[in-house]
Amino acid sequence: MGAPKQKWTPEEEAALKAGVLKHGTGKWRTILSDPQFSSVLKSRSNVDLKDKWRNISVTALWGSRKKAKLALRRNLPAPKQDDNNNTTPLSIVSLANGQERTNPTSPGGFGAGSPQTHASKKSITRIILEAITNLKETRGSDRTSIFLYIEENFKTPPNMKRNVAVRLKHLSSNGPLVKIKHRYRFSTNFTSVG
Amino acid sequence: MGAPKQKWTPEEEAALKAGVLKHGTGKWRTILSDPQFSSVLKSRSNVDLKDKWRNISVTALWGSRKKAKLALRRNLPAPKQDDNNNTTPLSIVSLANGQERTNPTSPGGFGAGSPQTHASKKSITRIILEAITNLKETRGSDRTSIFLYIEENFKTPPNMKRNVAVRLKHLSSNGPLVKIKHRYRFSTNFTSVG
DNA sequence: CGGTAGGGATAGGGTTCT
DNA sequence: TAGAACCCTATCCCTACC
């Protein structure tokens, strides 16, 4: 007979998320070995963690599309082709709002309503973090949502998308953001985890 | 609207049963890929096989999926008349038989192809153990599989199922079989580990 | 051998059709 | 209405590749 399915409990899922925030994605064995999580996740394997994280990410993809649609009151076509030539689907998780590197204005986040100022007046990094923060999507916002947020809240130059995309890539490779690979490639996600 | 319902033909159902006997339950893709069955089951998917097998099994045990589910929820198993009481989904693992695989010549094993002898001529216990052994399911065979095996390989009296069910209960309570609980399962499983 | 990424299969809940 | 057929997808499995 096939394997009975062992459904994930909320506690396990929370432990997994905390583990990813602490150790990063792809560090499944490390998370499992961390005494902070090992008791909760004792019945899970590293592969289980990987699979569950993938599932969470996929769920986030659709949730974030829906949320972006409602929040920004805009019809979003499914992002079939990437806005840049990124090939790998991913999410980006903000590691911390208060880290020095990001140099945010206020440690606790951003104000809800940013004035419609020129994007060039703020650092692109700050704007991106504001978007991720204010979209309030615990499981990630895709690029389109972020672009739309910025378009809705700032006066943007025509090459805004490209600049933001480049900045996102930089922030996720050596900045305060963490890449999370997704199984499906029809969109790229950027998630802010509180 | 959707795909028209494609009713299972007796030939397809026979092929599915034969496939389960040959490869075990949960091996839907394997059955589908077996040239012995692939032509008959050409228009079926592995999921179709799984669903059909579920219908067959659950009908045999409870009459319908709905009844099975209700029985599980109320923790009051209400199997059909010829079944004895089930409490929880379980597997039964044979503790007997030191040998690994089916070996027609070894004393404790059973031949792969038993002659179509009258079930009453062999002890029910031996027949059950033969079924469990030859079904080769590491995670257990359910009653339906065992019944089917016996029906396919022996001439059975009309009350075979009842006799086998009673015997299974006895063997699992104080015989060479061990019960193993499953987490989510309608049916009762009987597994032979080699 | 141990670990991860990714494709793919299965199990079980749910839905549609007859 | 019940039951058979079908859908959805979380979970699990298998393999390639370090």
From TrEMBL, chains A, B:
It comes from the Eukaryota. Keywords: Chromosome, Coiled coil, DNA-binding, Nucleus, Transcription, Transcription regulation. Residues 5-57 form the Myb-like domain. The keyword Transcription applies. Transmembrane segments: none annotated. GO terms for biological process: nucleosome assembly. GO terms for cellular component: nucleolus; nucleosome. One of its GO terms (molecular function) is double-stranded telomeric DNA binding. It is found in: Chromosome; Nucleus, Nucleolus. Residues 1-61 form the HTH myb-type domain. This is MYB transcription factor. It comes from Brassica campestris. The chain holds residues 1 to 194 of 287 of the full protein.
